[in-house]
Design goal:
The chain is an alpha/beta fold and 346 residues long. Strands 12-7-10-11-6-13-14 form a seven-stranded mixed β-sheet. Strands 2-1-3-4-5-15 form a six-stranded parallel β-sheet, with helices on both faces. β4, α5 and β5 form a beta-alpha-beta unit.
Length: 346
Amino acid sequence: MIQWATGGVGRAAVRGILDHPDLELAGCWVHSPDKAGRDVGELVGTEPLGVRATADVDEILRTDADAVIYAPLLPNPDEVAALLRSGKNVVTPVGWFYPGSREAAPLQQAALAGNATLHGTGIAPGGISEKLPLVLSAFATGVRFVRAEEFSDLRSYHAPAVLRYVMGFGDTPDKALSGPMQKLLDGGFIQAVRMCVDQLGFAAEPRIRTHQEVAVATAGIDSPIGVIEPGQVAARRFVWEAVVGDEPVVQVAVNWLMGEEHLDPAWTFGPAGQRYEVQVRGNPDFTVTVKGFQSEADDDGPEAGIVATAAHCVNSVPAVCAAPPGLLHYLDMPLVSGRAAAGLGR
């Protein structure tokens, strides 16, 4: 196994590889020259692993490894294509969950050339946004609507540069609404909605409806980017919907709040608190609430959702390595599960 990048997901993935009985770390690519040459264990907070990080892409391409967990902040299709052509299977949480034919074509060609497989996975999108609604929909007939929605307090997300400059927190509403976040999210979440539409068989319109909203602070709010002042963006909501006529049939939504106080509009998580929520309307109607992936605001440890994202990648590797070459999505995957903890497995 090779780990590509050692941000939050990358560090958690390395730990996950160490915990998995069928995987072994063989290499690690890092973006920062300051990390190059250091033992990967030092970078992720474990004992020395005997594997040195490198910033040399060619060295990674030459490394003998079955698979790469590709986890940069932003995806680069050329990098993924090069990894596939080098014969390495790629599992990634940053895209290609259910790509359209135009986006898939060059990577499909690279995968076939290298006899390798590409699989996009993760948590939202890449798991709870499409895999979980589809699995749960099997408990209903006559499905009319599915929804997957995230409710998260981002005061536990300790990535200030991302929060401010990518996600738009602390900015003016106009700048946040016109900033890069909608476009960055659209790629993955539109794929999630389309996967649900196709698998459930809805006669939905080709275009996915999207909209976003912001809430601003009415008083100072402590956050990982410092104090968010009155009038600055302190909460964001994004929605993606497929419709049949005027009726929504698939909806995926994200609610990111810097706490529940001093917001205008006065958004809250509701009595259920932080969670992922999956709703199916059919026969019967039901809603499933998933808690535990969102850390509390005062938790200094790694964000639970980041660890879960990495785990989904790590646990998918054996199935991806066993699959035929090409692009692989959930609809063609076998059951993927975790593995027993050390001392409890066979």
